[in-house]
Design brief:
With 421 residues, the chain is α/β, with parallel strands linked by helices. It has 15 helices and 18 strands. It has helices at 5-14, 38-47, 72-87, 102-108, 140-149, 174-185, 200-204, 207-215, 231-237, 284-289, 301-304, 307-317, 335-343, 346-353, 403-412, and strands spanning 23-27, 30-34, 59-62, 92-94, 117-120, 134-137, 151-155, 158-165, 193-198, 224-226, 259-264, 271-273, 281-283, 296-299, 327-330, 356-357, 378-381, 397-400. Helix 12 crosses helix 14 and helix 12 packs parallel to helix 15.
């Protein structure tokens, strides 16, 4: 029988042909924890009586949500992961000395490899599917099981094939493609499915946009998002010291899909997702007509905190000022990205425009710190969720958009089309 790329990855790991709907036990190539979720996993690991990790080189802890610690509670939470990392001499432990948001940092470090099966106790682990891997979020106790055994159980998901065709218009990016999909199918439209992104548009899409695209597969309810290995993937990985040799899979012609979605990107505008669901999307042209004043703009997160996002924002902000009543917060996703932005002069542009640049952190995205919204405030954010209370007060509003729309909105003080700036 013909197989999809997701089915092939599970077949290779299970040692036998695996198809959608089957339950398989699979070795895990990389287990990812963070300062929020890992302490629960550590507790269960130690409660089991386990003395050592099944695959220590395939386990990473990234301290990225409340680091540097914002209060005593977060400091104590972080200490649990630190103590565990030091006790087990963990090779892949990342804290203030080598900071980054996990889903940007691990690919940067070469710890995500095509053909891998990857799990993380964070729903946006699906980001790593951009490199031709199966990657999904699981619970902290599932993580503990993988820490102890090196394996986990999966139901092989059915696949939805999304074919993007046409030339990308100005200021349209991977973020807009995934927001358009979610707008069309809803937040449960791909429930426990694999979203497989293909088409001539994808063949031209840079790696950063692919990461954004796969990052928000979970916002459509998907188990994973995935893009097959190609020359763009190869180029991205060319300077990385990869953890292992890539295993490259492609879907067979005639493989079975739950459905096929075709989208002509040449007809799309940048998308703005209104509160309180990522599926509540409008074109930026429609959003501009609503004339909504904005209190805060946030550019960052595991969705859109990469170097290309900072370059896009800087191009729009250069020589301009953030609106008087609007705050602009910019968070590079890793220290390496921050250094590159500094060398390129982007930091000067941001500060001169009136922005504040923070260390790499998930803080603002999850309403933890570094940008909490007050009652009734509106924020344009390049993040992935705009649920009630996601970034602060329950009466605040979040509008999801790409980096260009966010930067343009910071200048205008209201939702703006970057093509008009």
């Amino acid at each position: 029988m013909k197989q999809t790329i997701t089915e092939k990855i599970f077949s290779a790991h299970a040692g036998e042909a695996a198809f959608a709907g089957q339950i398989v036990q699979s070795p895990i190539d990389m287990v990812i924890g963070n300062d929020i979720t890992t302490p629960i996993s550590i507790k269960q690991f130690e409660r089991s009586g386990a003395k050592s990790l099944a695959n220590p080189d395939g386990f990473a802890i990234v301290m990225d949500h409340y680091i540097p610690a914002k209060d005593i509670a977060s400091a104590n939470q972080a200490k649990i992961s630190r103590d565990f990392a030091y006790k087990h001499d963990l090779k892949h432990f990342f804290d203030e000395k080598d900071m980054g948001i996990e889903h940007a940092l691990l690919p940067e470090k070469g710890l995500v490899v095509p053909g891998d099966v990857i799990i993380g106790a964070d729903s946006h682990t699906c980001t790593h599917g951009a490199l031709g891997a199966f990657a999904t979020g699981m619970g902290s106790t599932d993580l503990a099981y993988a820490m102890i055994t090196g394996k986990n159980w999966f139901k092989v998901p059915e696949s939805i094939k999304v074919i993007f065709s046409g030339k990308m218009p100005q200021h349209l990016y991977g973020k807009d493609l995934i927001l358009e999909i979610i707008r069309q199918i809803g937040v449960d439209g791909a429930l426990y499915k694999a979203l497989e992104f293909t088409g001539d548009t994808i063949a031209q899409l840079d790696m950063d946009s692919r990461f954004s695209l796969c990052n928000m597969a979970i916002e459509a309810g998907a188990k994973n998002g995935i893009v097959a290995y190609d020359e763009i993937t190869k180029e991205f990985l060319s300077d990385k010291n990869l953890r292992s040799k890539p295993v490259i899979h492609y879907s067979d012609e005639g493989a079975k899909y739950e459905r096929i979605i075709e989208i002509d990107v040449s007809k799309l505008d940048p998308v703005v997702a209104y509160p309180f669901l990522p599926s509540n999307g409008k074109s930026v042209r429609e959003a501009v007509k609503d004339d909504l004043s904005i209190d805060q703009v946030f550019i960052g997160s595991c969705t859109n905190g990469r170097l290309s996002d900072l370059r896009i924002a800087a191009e729009i902000l250069k020589g301009k000022r953030v609106s008087k009543k609007t705050r602009l917060i910019i968070t590079p996703a890793t220290q390496k990205i921050a250094l590159a932005a500094q060398k390129e002069g982007l930091m000067d542009i941001f500060v001169e425009a009136g922005a504040v640049v923070s260390n790499p952190t998930c803080g603002a995205c999850l309403g933890g710190y570094m940008g909490i919204l007050a009652d009734g405030e509106r924020c344009v954010a390049t993040t992935n969720r705009n649920f009630v209370g996601r970034m602060g007060a329950r009466t605040s509003e979040i509008y999801l958009a790409n980096s260009a729309v966010a930067a343009a909105s910071a200048i205008a003080g209201k939702i703006a089309d970057p093509r008009d700036i």
